[in-house]
Amino acid sequence: MQLIPRQGRHLEARSSGGHTVAALRGELDLVLVRHLRPELDALARESDALTLDIRGLTFCDATGLGLLVRCAERTRERGGRWRLLCDQPRILRLIHLTALGDLLRPEPAPAGAVSGAAPARARRTE
């Protein structure tokens, strides 16, 4: 299944061969979580492998962390592969303090990777 690329101020996603890369930007708080939850649920449901790139986030609260957990669990429940790209010390510390490292498995981006996705044809999600 080929996903429709998504693009908005806070989410860009592209899919190829069952692997989806979704990049989040901004502040992942209660307001943004409510906006992104349906989109991320769809990506987790439709992707064989989901990479969530959160290097563009400037803030993440407990609600945002809950959304990341939801994505990871839903992806794995379907037998999909999950990756979380994160290099922000504050968010990594939050993941560590909440003992969610084993579930979320944050990792730095591969060498030479650029933050964000660049879909060719995208639709706005705002």
Which terms summarize this structure?
about 130 residues, alpha/beta, seven-stranded mixed beta sheet, 4 helices, about 35% helix, globular
Number of strands: 7
User: Could you say which structural class the secondary elements and strand pairing correspond to?
Assistant: alpha/beta
Straight-line N-to-C gap: 24 Å
Q: How do the helices and strands follow one another from N- to C-terminus?
A: EEEHEHEHHEE
What does this structure look like?
This protein is α/β, with parallel strands linked by helices and 126 residues long. It has helices at 30-46, 62-77, 89-97, 101-104; strands spanning 6-7, 11-16, 19-28, 49-60, 81-85, 106-107, 123-124. It contains four helices and seven strands; from the N terminus they run βββαβαβααββ. It has a seven-stranded mixed β-sheet with strand order 6-5-4-3-2-1-7. The longest helix is centred in the first third of the chain and has 17 residues, at 30-46. The model is unreliable at 1-5 and 116-126 (pLDDT under 50).
Break the fold down into its secondary structure elements and pairings:
Elements: E1 6-7, E2 11-16, E3 19-28, H1 30-46, E4 49-60, H2 62-77, E5 81-85, H3 89-97, H4 101-104, E6 106-107, E7 123-124
Parallel strand pairs: 1-7, 3-4, 4-5, 5-6
Antiparallel strand pairs: 1-2, 2-3
Helix pairs in contact: 1-2
